[in-house]
Amino acid sequence: MISRRWGPPSVANKGCHAPLPLVLLHGLLGDGGDWQPVIDRLPAIHCIALDLPGHGQHSALNVSDFEQSHQWLVAELASRNIECYLLAGYSLGGRLALYHASREPAGLRGLLLENCHPGLPDNERAARIQHDEQWARRFEQEPLADVLADWYRQGVFADLDDAARARQIARRLGNDGQGIATMLRATSLGKQPDLAPWLMASQLPVTYVSGKRDHKFHQLACQLANQNRRINHLVLDGGHNLHAHQPDNFARLLAEWVNQQEETSHD
Q1: Cα→Cα distances 235→39, 232, 240, 263, Å
Q2: Confidence of residue 34 (pLDDT cuts 50, 70, 90)
Q3: How far apart are CA 184 and CA 198, in angstroms?
Q4: Does the reported pTM lie above 0.85?
Q5: Interatomic CA distance for residues 193 and 208, integer angstroms
């Protein structure tokens, strides 16, 4: 497997006494490089930013569902001799990280989710699968620039002005439409199990990060944190993609979180 990697040189992570590496998962249409501005601000932390299936250097790699995505991540970690680790994910990457955590891998010591959906109730899944199928067909059939122009006008990206939207579209034009379509179908929110019950019962340290201007995901995070006081909810004054638009603030938040998890794992 190929992935993008930054930070100090990798070392075998035998046991949980060495500094815990931080594994980072990007969102749909992104790649591991999306985390670069944050990683540049975290020189003391060993960060591993992976390209998800269907993205970046893994654009030709396909998975069929969440379980295959989990197995892909397990293989990525094993190929680096990583036995204990911290995991952070944004949007789609957060949903894949959450599913991975719900499988209760022995080495996972902390989970951070940035604007991530825990899952839909059964009666809403079919409509979401149909919604994502419409987007998938557009990604595989239409010019990518046209699809992206509409994609970034969805309500979740309402904080983007015209200039920011144009920059985002330009950054995403290197994607393979077929690869994105395949991943969108495989990991539709409609196919994701509702993981809120697992979150309510889990003993794993979980931190949710939301942006106040991303009303949908901020409300979801507030609800989860209110239902389970063990979930740590951190809020930034921003929209959906906080780490991209506020790398300084997000890096400080990540550094504090990693240090806290390190102290807890070594107690």
Answers
A1: 20, 10, 12, 22
A2: very high
A3: 23
A4: yes
A5: 18
